[in-house]
Design a protein that fits this description.
Shape: globular
Low-confidence stretches: none
Mean pLDDT: 94
Distance between the termini: 34 Å
Strand content: 15-25%
Bound molecules: (R)-mevalonate
Radius of gyration: 19 Å
Largest sheet: 7 strands, mixed
Structural class: alpha+beta
Length: 312
């Protein structure tokens, strides 16, 4: 056992394919390193203690809103057979929650890594997946697994289903501008509303999911051949399809429009939508800054500029 255990995890950006990926269409996601979650584990005097943005106190009395976190901590302690060792878990986050950047999966990954580190135990990706999936199921309805897979891999991934995940390397010379709308999205709600739409009109909504899937395939081809304009066009096309299944809102649409008016090659919501972030694609740093400024003027609370070349 160490004096202090440490676990770090990035966020993720879904470039394309959110929602449709729940219905077996492909998606592309990249890790988001500009903000991260760091968890520190130390010895606690009597019982497990936790400190995070939402709560500070005993794990036993933690509110139900962090049930996923409580479950993952208890599962890890059980897995490591360390139930009788009280720990103090401190979660420090620069990744905004409810922003579509994968904060729930990122918290889980960093907590598991920190606990394994504290108890000086080796961890492999397959154990990490299994442990993190339990909490993702509590936070998200029927998660595709793309968030945790991207965060654990720390590389851009092509995700077709749980058994078909490939690490990819982008040749795209452009930049992605990520803009936080400041409105918190709720993945569980958004995913269950889409499920309801599919129940009501399977044919129509499934057609839209297939169209998203086709656009994702076209982005994949164009990522490798550095066709920025085509990638941008597909991104905006996907945004409009997501809008038509009600996972956008006026604020996100305004951010998308402001990015396009400022010269972005394409723009779309990212993640589950109904709040959270918008991403836009631009040629170079100068045009990225112009696009970021336009989205800030439109109300974005925070923006980040991200290169898409190589392993990212
Ligand atoms: C959430 O980051 C992405 C969704 O497609 C849900 C999922 O894949 O589990 C909306």
């Amino acid at each position: 056992m160490k004096l202090i255990g440490k676990g770090i995890a990035s966020g993720k950006i879904i470039l394309a394919g959110e929602h449709a990926v729940v219905y077996n269409q492909p998606a592309i996601a990249v890790p988001f390193f500009a903000a991260q979650i760091e968890t520190l584990v130390t010895k606690a005097p009597v019982e497990h203690l936790i400190e995070c943005d939402y709560y500070k106190g005993t794990l036993r009395e933690a509110p139900t809103s962090i049930n996923g976190l409580r479950t993952i901590i208890l599962n890890v302690m059980d897995y490591l057979r360390k139930d009788t060792h009280p720990v103090n878990i401190d979660i420090i986050s620069s990744l905004p929650s409810g922003s579509g950047l994968g904060s729930s999966a990122s918290v889980s990954v960093s907590v598991v890594r920190a606990l394994f580190d504290y108890f000086d135990c080796e961890i492999n990706d397959s154990i990490l997946y299994d442990l993190v999936e339990t909490s993702e199921r509590i936070y998200h309805l029927n998660p595709s697994g793309i968030d945790m897979r991207t965060i654990i891999n720390s590389k851009p991934v092509w995700f077709e289903n749980r058994d078909d995940i490939k690490v990819i390397s982008s040749q795209l010379s452009g930049y992605i501008i990520v803009a936080d709308s400041g409105i918190k999205g709720n993945t569980k709600e958004a995913v269950s509303e889409v499920r309801e739409l599919i129940r009501e009109d399977f044919e129509e909504i499934n057609k839209k999911m297939e169209s998203i899937g086709e656009a994702v395939r076209s982005i994949q081809t164009n990522l490798f051949s550095d066709r920025l304009r085509e990638v941008g066009h597909s991104m905006t096309y996907i945004h409009n399809l997501l809008k038509s299944i009600n996972v956008s809102n006026d604020t996100l649409d305004r951010l998308v429009d402001s990015a396009l008016s400022a010269g972005a090659l394409g723009a779309k919501l990212t993640g589950s939508g109904k709040g959270g972030c918008v991403i836009a694609l631009a040629h170079d740093t100068v045009s990225s800054q112009k696009v970021a400024k336009a989205m800030e003027t439109e109300g974005a609370t925070q923006t980040w500029i991200y290169s898409l070349k190589g392993d990212i």
